Amino acid sequence: MARKRLIALVLVWTLPSVLFLTVVGIVYNIYRIHQPARLDDAQRAAVMATLRAGLDGTTPVPCTVHEPIAGAVVITLWSDGKALVRVEGAGADLAAAINATALELKPYAASLDPNLRAAARMQVDVITGTAPLGGIAPYAIPGIAEMLAINPGLDGIGTDIEGKRQVLLPYELVSAKTLATKRPSNQMADLAMGIDLSKIGVLLGARAGKRTAVDPEAMFRFRTDTFVEAPTAQRPRTPYQLYRGNTAAPKISAQSLREAALNGGRYLVAHMAPSGRYIYEHDLATGKQTDPERGAYSMPRHAGTTYFLAQLYRITHEEWLREPIERAFKHLADLLANGRCVNTLPDGTEFDCVLDRNETQAQLGSTSLTIVALAEYQLATNDTRYLGLATKLTNFILFMQRPDGSFMHIYDPKTKKPDPVQELFYYSGESALALARMYQVTKDPKYATAAGKALDWLVHWYDFFMGGYFYGEEHWTCIASEAIWPAVVNQDYLDFCNGYGKFLRAQQPETDEHPDQNDFVGAYNVTSFVPPYNTPAGSRTEAMISTYLLGRHMGQPDPDVRAQILLALQYTLGQQIRPDNDFGVVGPGLGGMPGTPIDRSVRIDYVQHVCSGMIRTSEWLEDGKP
Question: How many DSSP H helices and E strands does the chain contain?
């Protein structure tokens, strides 16, 4: 009897695990795409030589790279960011397919302008493996097809129609905005995942010349070995390997961070209108840009972006930055000149606040970040022309601060009353930083006192049982904690920010932690099924830089925080638009920071946060150290 009970107990404990492992094994073998080793440098160069000879109409260069393939090869010719030519070839092996594709390219030798052909860059996609599309019969798992069917940016989707294979390459799925289209939670609006199978079916049907959409049950997934020609100025360099449509990241160093930050500054200057307003968003895949003079505009992000440019100027002293910064400040001054937000307190103190021309309520964050930017400019130049303006704006921050150190976030200039209830993300931390920066430029103790009260309230808000297990977006809190040192020294601030850093590190994947996702190492993941957003890798890094520096000030530098910073910045260096990876960029994109690895839109705040982290780290990172 005892033996039977023992056997039953063993089964209870082991059967679930055995069943789970069995299911994992079955799913892995059905859906995993088994691929050969990628082509090496010499093989990629040989393939490209054959294709380039075909495109240029010169003496044929037969390809001798006899590697197995799992389908066609697809050649895309990029010119000014657009796919100018797309041809396919098939064969018994890679050499046969490339030789066939080179013949397909020959007509373009005469039809394309020679200068255009020379400057264009060829991308080669070699289909190396296929597998079923998850959630489709006979392997149906409800919901998998649309939510978790593909690894976005790595997998393509294809079908066979009337004996001919039709494929949508990984970059084509990205450009068509078929990825990250499902939002599983209304409470997490930014959490987007999955694919638009209906749209993909229409695109595949159209590629085959059909008016009907392809049924998902007829689709399959595939992987590619992808590489692209170097820019003309770098040839005859070996073609760049691509992974998730991107080239390998530059190695992190003080110099590479400084150069990347300056390129971010150049992007922002190139996207500033004569009025001083920024082109808020740029779609790199289409070249479409928002109009800075019409439509919605974010004043907090205008101020935050100008703050970064002032910071970049303070650290690098690059003179080309000064005029655009002053142009952005002039726009803010023009908005303030209408007097819509001016008020005088009973004691005679006059304040003002930033209010865009279409706004009826003033947001605390717009004014706070404007103060930060003005103070940063004064620290960089010793120019006090904006000090009077910054003082009036800071009076508004003090007016909006409650006795306990917290802030009211919305102000109605018509009624001249704050909204005591509504609170928004970031604004309290931004206000604490504004007060700290004003102390730095004026040494007026009232600003240090107010900043300390604000930080006390912010960090002690978490003084409850679960407070150390979750955090809001507190990056401005930690930036302010370091900015006010040594006028206000409080161990609680450092403990809070170190705790915040530990919390964030749990979201930062390490090498080989997730299959096929080593290009995400250093980012901050919501889940391994969703490509990471690039902005948190910048904003949270800004906070961790301040945390690390505050620890150094107080004799308690945390090496884990330092490693966390470098890991995130190595990731963002890879995400930035550079000459080697800009072949699919329409418009002035160099230095831009896309939203995610599969989102080709750039907003000014993406560049601001990431490049601020880069330039600040370049100040203390010693070259040559890992």
Answer: 20, 17
